[in-house]
Amino acid sequence: MSEGIRRFHVGDRISEMAIHRGTVYLAGQVPSDATVGIRGQTRQVLEMVDRLLQEAGTDKAHILRAQVFLADLADFDGMNEIWDDWVAPGDAPPRATVQAALARPEWKIEVVVTAALWAE
């Protein structure tokens, strides 16, 4: 284990989250049920982000940066509809949204977040 780095939900290939020097780094979060449309997939992903941030001891108001990967930019408005309801009022983080070929064709969205801890 690397000194000063705490990893969570460690697998053979990736960890779902790492914390180092007051910063929380999440792996790309993808939907668990890909049978739903962009709104449902976005909700699932943001709920996973919330759970991981809570486990780390922080929340969405402390997001420093978000990266959104969409399989199809035609889903941009639907994703934003859910994002806008989810994002902490007054604390919208810097965000990039790009179209990308995701690892599984049924996934419509993947989100990567970096956040600050409340206090360390």
Question: How would you characterize the largest beta sheet?
Answer: 6 strands, mixed
CATH architecture: 2-Layer Sandwich
**How many β-strands, per DSSP?**
6
Helix percent reads 25-40%
Q: Radius of gyration from the CA trace?
A: 14 Å
What is the succession of H and E elements? EEEHEHEE
Supply the CATH class: Alpha Beta
Strand content: 25-35%
Provide the residue-averaged pLDDT.
95
Counting DSSP H or I runs of 4 or more residues, the number of helices is 2
Structural class: alpha+beta
For the largest sheet, list the strands in their spatial order: 1-2-3-6-4-5
Characterization of the model:
The chain is α+β, with helices and mostly antiparallel strands and 120 residues long. The chain has a 6-stranded mixed β-sheet with strand order 1-2-3-6-4-5, with helices on one face. The mean pLDDT is 95. Strand 2 (15-20) and strand 3 form a beta hairpin. The chain is built from 2 helices and 6 strands; from the N terminus they run E-E-E-H-E-H-E-E. The radius of gyration is 14 Å and the shape is globular. 25% of the residues lie in helices and 31% in strands. The protein has a single domain, classed as 60s Ribosomal Protein L30, Chain: A. The longest helix has 19 residues, at 38-56. Helix 1 (38-56) packs parallel to helix 2.
Give the gist of this structure.
With 120 residues, the chain is α+β, with helices and mostly antiparallel strands.
Structural key phrases:
60s Ribosomal Protein L30, Chain: A, six-stranded mixed beta sheet, 120 residues
